[in-house]
Design brief:
Layout (H helix, E strand, L loop, with lengths): L2 H23 L2 E7 L3 H15 L2 E7 L1 H9 L6 E3 L4 H8 L9 E6 L1 E5 L11 H4 L5 E4 L5 H12 L3 H4 L3 E4 L2 H9 L5 E5 H4 L9 E4 L8 E7 L7 H10 L2 H9 L7
Parallel strand pairs: 1-2, 1-3, 6-7, 6-8
Antiparallel strand pairs: 3-10, 4-10, 5-8, 5-9
Length: 256
């Protein structure tokens, strides 16, 4: 075999090996995830990566702030919102693919205190006012905060309690306010309580869904991820029985 043929053969071998390595490593999928779903996504990620060969990179925050970052050019591939409005608005602005939007989870709102026996089974503490501070996520940027405000208004206690409110930047910070005692009680996501030890369960009241708009949490493929095979595979994975089972186990509902 002459030297020219050898060189061609060697170059072809290198190209083949590099292509195989690219296939083996898969794509990196940058996911913008609403704060309430961060822990659940951390549980889903290893299963998705094992099944698909792709990898996930997560950035969490309030839905409103993540959407603003996407509008300002943040290089996210997938958006896991805490509502269905922001993905729809991003699609209308040409920043997401409308046909890929679907509800991956339905959130549940809970009034919670780290103190045992403080929150009663009907949430009457909101009427009696036997507490110092009530934490909610910022209603302007966090769907769970907007739901909390809706519930307080529908119960007729918003005017009386407004001065006692402390606002978390997102639902994760709101949870921290309550768990550390900086707020006596607060509105959090049911999923945030699923991993608590029995000694840290405190007391809770699951807010009736009739008191606020449905917390339909939608996923959408962003324009930045339109050509990312891993991003499309991840959205398909979220619809799989394995993923849906983990989502339900963490305290969410799922759409039919």
């Amino acid at each position: 075999m002459n030297s020219t043929i050898m060189r061609r053969w060697f170059c072809a071998l290198i190209l083949y090996l590099n292509a195989g390595q690219a296939d083996a490593t898969g794509d990196t999928v940058h996911v913008a995830v609403a704060a309430n779903f961060t822990t659940t996504l951390q549980k889903l990620a290893p299963d998705f990566e094992r099944r698909s060969g792709h990898s996930l990179l997560q950035s969490s925050g309030s839905t409103g702030k993540l959407a603003a970052q996407i509008r300002n050019g943040a290089p996210f591939d997938v958006f896991l919102s805490a509502d269905d409005a922001q993905p729809r608005q991003l699609a209308a602005a040409g920043l997401a693919l409308a046909e890929t939007q679907f509800t991956y989870a339905i959130g549940r709102l809970v009034l919670w205190s780290s103190q045992s026996g403080l929150v009663d089974a009907k949430g009457e503490i909101l009427r009696t006012g036997d507490f110092a501070k009530l934490a909610i996520a910022n209603p302007k940027t966090a769907p769970y905060g907007a739901a909390a405000e809706q519930a307080l208004r529908k119960l007729g206690v918003w005017p009386r309690l407004e001065a006692r409110l402390v606002y978390g930047e997102n639902i994760a910070q709101t949870f921290q306010f309550v768990s550390t005692g900086n707020a006596t009680l607060g509105f959090v996501a049911l999923a945030q309580l699923s991993g608590l030890k029995a000694t840290a369960q405190g007391s809770r009241w699951r807010v009736p869904e009739t008191l606020h708009a449905p917390l339909r949490q939608d996923a959408v493929l962003l324009q930045h991820g339109a050509d990312n095979a891993g991003a499309r595979a991840f959205l398909e994975y979220l619809r799989s029985p394995a993923a849906r089972a983990m989502i339900v186990a963490d305290g969410y509902g799922i759409a039919d």
